[in-house]
Amino acid sequence: MGTDVKSGENRLASYIGISGPDTPKYLHANNFLAEFFQDDVQSREMQYTCDMFYKKKILLCEEDNDQKKKQLEESFDYFFRKFSGEDLIPFNDKRHYYFPLRPQMLRGSSTNLRHLLYCMIPGIEKEETYHEIQDLLYEYLYSGADGVSYLMGVICEDRNFDQQSWKRATKRNYESDMLKAANFKKVCVNFKEDLMNLLTHDFFRRMDFYKRYDYLATLLNCYVIQFIINKKAVSSNRGYVLCQGSSHLARCGAYHRACVQNYSEIRFVFQTELKQFYIECLKEEQAEDKDFVVEESEGKIYVTGKNESKEFIQFVRQVFHSNIKDKMALSLYPAVRRVFALDEKKKFSAEEFAMCYMDVSSARKGSALVKISSALNTCGKDIAFVFPKTHSKHKYFALSPSLLDFFVRLYLAKQESTYAYLDNFLNFLQDWYGICIQKNARMDRMLKSLHIKVPFQEFRLNEQALIDNLDEINCLIRLSDSGYVITLPEEKGEFALL
Questions:
Q1: Strand partners, 420
Q2: Which of 127, 131, 210, 491 qualifies as a cystine partner to 418, CB 3.0-4.6 A?
Q3: In angstroms, rounded to a whole number, what is the distance separating the alpha carbons of residues 16 and 228?
Q4: End-to-end Cα separation, the chain, in angstroms
């Protein structure tokens, strides 16, 4: 979906549905919020310091030692800049994220996924739906007289939020046709329901600001992954993933190999999408019933379609809307000669040309395929759903304690209950998110398609890993050797069998 990038990359991002490289989850949440709140450009020039708060008599320092007092003031200034959203917090050296404690502290990013999630809210193009979500987001994060909201209200009393700025200047509808397909409709409906539950239920609202913000970011990243998973579900109403019950499960055995292979097949969807995008672009440039001619002449490579012959770099830049530079010709042409086997003039169909070009561009650092396919891995690692977190190619889905806590809390909020049976929770994960953990007919069909046989004891180990995971986060109550109930850690002490 659209991003603030060049028109060529914008067209590719619209076709694929997401753009890359992806942003870390907190900046991702910040970008989503920026769809609903306008940031206050003038307020960015305001610099809050400890001295300023002294003069307003908001803060008082009773330290007599001048050196210690100066250190305290410097520490306060640093903390306020970083954790009030006034300044960047480094993330993995090159990336940054913010904690926007007031709507005016929101910052945007040039590459993000906010449009995708914004469009995944059914009816968001309607003004009443837009304002309903906007009001709930404000109430969820910025209202109330407790904790950080109260503190920021006192300290930043001269930066009151203007409610009129909530209104959009113009109505926009970025929704693409792909989100209307059968395999996306249900995901979009689920996203809106989950978002509403998160924004309104006490299981989330009673948390402190940072926890509420983290839960919102987790939900948003979950649905970027849901979007990717369901791009593969071309013949069914939803996509599914094989998932390990815990990230601590031993990385061995047939079930683990199946999880790795399942992850690889989902990620492969981007290669299929990109190939189809290139083919459709080529068909617009293809003469009727004629192939593309590729030849080398005087050290340069030329491509002939339905129009005049063009140098290779110019051709792909125009037809594929690529941002590849002319200076790349010298480094790219050896790969072009090799892949296209240009010992003589050759003809290529649209599909053949697309496949060859993908082979050529995949070797180029920062290619479109590498950038776009990084979204699944990045979003998954940020919410601790994709492991390992290293550069290993053998990645797989697993439930970490933090992600499992989020799913338990969201499920119980949907059920309007503080307790639920574990089996019902596992069925919910499969039906709602396509996360398969226990052995059943769905998992059997997935394993059959992967041509992997898994011993029964490995299923038991996976389920036990999930139980241990729930125990670790204090969300499990044992009724018997085979009966379990899930609950919230803060509610566990109140449990009693009826």
A1: 486
A2: 491
A3: 10
A4: 50
In terms of pLDDT, which residue wins out, 493 or 470? 470
Tell me the per-residue pLDDT of 103-148, one tens digit each, with 9 for 90 and over: 777 766 665 677 788 889 998 888 889 999 999 999 998 876 566 6
Tens of pLDDT, residues 73-96: 998 888 777 666 655 555 555 555
What Å distances lie between residue 104 and 108, 132, 156, 347, 455, CA to CA?
12, 20, 11, 57, 56
387: left (phi over 0), alpha (psi -120 to 50) or beta: beta
Quick one: which of 440, 426, 124 has its CA closest to 245? 426
Q: What is the DSSP string of 179-213?
A: GGSHHHHHHHHHHHHHHHHHHH-HHHHTS-HHHHH
DSSP class of 365: T
Report pLDDT for 2.
34
Burial of 490 (0-12, 13-18, 19+ CB in 10 A): exposed
Structural contact between residues 434 and 426, judged by C-beta atoms closer than 8 angstroms: no
Region of poorest pLDDT, from 19-28, 198-207, 251-260? 19-28
Q: Which residue has the tokens 């926890």?
A: 211
Q: Report the alpha-carbon distance of residue 310 to residue 303 in Å, rounded.
A: 5
Mean pLDDT of the 161-190 span: 70
Query: Token pair of 83, please?
Result: 């954790």
The whole-number pLDDT of residue 9 equals: 60
Closest listed residue to residue 270, CA positions, set 120, 364, 377: 377
| 8 Å CB contact between 477 and 484 | yes
State the Cα–Cα distance between residues 486 and 476, nearest whole angstrom.
5
Prediction pTM value: 0.86
DSSP three-state, residue 34: helix
> Count of residues for the chain?
498
